[in-house]
Structures are given as structure tokens and as C-alpha cells.
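User: Please run a holo structure prediction.
Assistant: Happy to. Please share the sequence and the ligand.
User: Here you go; the ligand is S-adenosyl-L-homocysteine.
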Amino acid sequence: MPASEAPGARAVRFTPPPMTPVRQARGRVWLIGAGPGDPDLITVAGLKVLQAADVVIHDRLGAPALLGECRPDALKINVGKRAGRHALPQEEINMLLARHAMAGRLVVRLKGGDPFIFGRGGEEMMALRQRGIQVDIVPGVTAASACAAATGIPLTHRGLASEVSMITAHHRKDAEGCNWKQLAAQRDRTLVFYMGLSQAADIAHGLMRHGFAGDTPVALISNGATSRQAALRCTLDCLPASAQHEGLMSPCLIVVGKVVDLAHPHCVAQAMPTYEVSQWVA
Ligand code: SAH
């Protein structure tokens, strides 16, 4: 029997809703990726829904200019970290989304990068689904793609990297950390660490302990794809020291692998023992 005829093996046919007619529909939530911080890097679909929204619930955005795209009468709610205030707990964000959708509004949840890459978009989607609220997702340019493009580092490249892993370097207290052994097992793989700046020493030690060469090229890219971009190239054994550089701040991405050698020299400064600031390209 061909695999496609096996009971239960048939693929479910599903045509994603065409963006245009549903865009104005009320009583639902759109999770939209805002991209990495350059307002031009939101998708056309994302921008169109944002412009139609009644309510926009957003984090502290890399691209605050996007809020200027909302309708003047749209309600804008910042649930991210604000001056002197913590971010709203996830459960309260879920409730807020649900409440506005159930009141018949077109709700946009605007999130940095892509909502499904370390963005807790899945949790929000599940919470809304459980309440029977329709939720649609518009993908965004994730930091890995944006930083790669902005520095000329192809994440995969024939002969250098046939795989790419996106890894969070930040773990809940009760969760296990990175599986260094598994990460280090495949050498022609690009490793991209999110939330890694303060964990740089752990990353370097974890990988080298499992056989990664100390001279593996590494790039640290801070505020990638924005006018504040600063990037530094070093080797894995120098990563802990390089991460201390005052020119690097959060948000910062760490890319490990041979593809870093292809970085555009104008975009990524080589770490020097003296760390001259003039050697930086911001
Ligand atoms: N959903 C987001 C990631 C959120 S986690 C996305 O898809 O990109 C936050 C982490 O993303 C930061 O700690 C940093 O590692 C990375 N990040 C986000 N924007 C970035 C940027 N402009 N430059 C470098 N790293 C960025």
C-alpha cells in the first residue's frame, strides 16, 4: 500500500486564509512579527493588518516607528518592560488579548522578530485557541536572518555549513541547560545563540569542552539590522573576553561556525587585543 493510502496518513488539506478579505474581520487576534528593529523589515501582510487594527498590544519594540503606522484611534498597549516597570506577566497578556478579541475588536499582538522563535507566540496562540478565539500568525524576520543579512554571513553555505541551529542561551531556572555534546557533535553546522551575551563564557566553555576548536570563528552582532548595529568577530576561545566589550549591548546574537569567515569586513570588526573603538563599524 502506498504510504499516502495508509489509514490516518493522508495530509490534511488546508488553504491558509487569504490575507485581504479576513484582514478587517473583528473578534480575532493576529500575532505579527515586527522584525528585528528596522521598521522596513516587517512584512507587507504584517503592516496591512497593523494598519487595520483596533487594538495593538506590543512589547518594547526594536522599531517603535511601526506604532506610527497604526490608526490614530487605535488603542496601543505596551506590555513589555517599561521605564521602572516590569513586563506584564504572560498570563495577563493572554487575558488582555482574549478580552479585547471577545469584545469584538481586531487585535494585533506585535512581537519582535518572528513570533514563533523564542517569542512565546506559541503560548499566546494556545491560550487564545483554548478560549475559542481565532488566532492567525504573520511571520517576521527573525534576528538570525536579519543579523546574517546585515553582516554578510550566510547561515548555510555549501562546503561550510549544511545545517543551522537556533538556540536559546537563556534557560528557566528549573530547565536543563544546553546540550553541549549534541551541539558540538556536528561540525558543519552554524550555531546561532539568542539571548547569549551574558552567557558567552558558558557557550565557549560548553562547546570547547566537547571538542569545538578554540579557533572556530564567532561573530557577536548587537542591534543587528538597525542604525545602532555593532558587530565583532573573534574566535571561540576569545568569546568570553569579547562579549565584555562596552560597544556590545543587548539585544545581541552570537553566531558560531565557519560561515563567519565570509562576513563583510566593513560590517564586522575583527577583535583586536586592544579593542580599539575606531575599529568598529556601527
Ligand atoms: N522573536 C525574536 C527573538 C526574541 S528573544 C526573533 O525572532 O528574533 C530576544 C533575543 O533575540 C535577544 O536577546 C537577541 O539575542 C535576539 N535579537 C533580537 N533582535 C535582535 C537584533 N536586532 N540584533 C541582535 N539580536 C537580536
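The chain has two domains: 21-138, 143-279.
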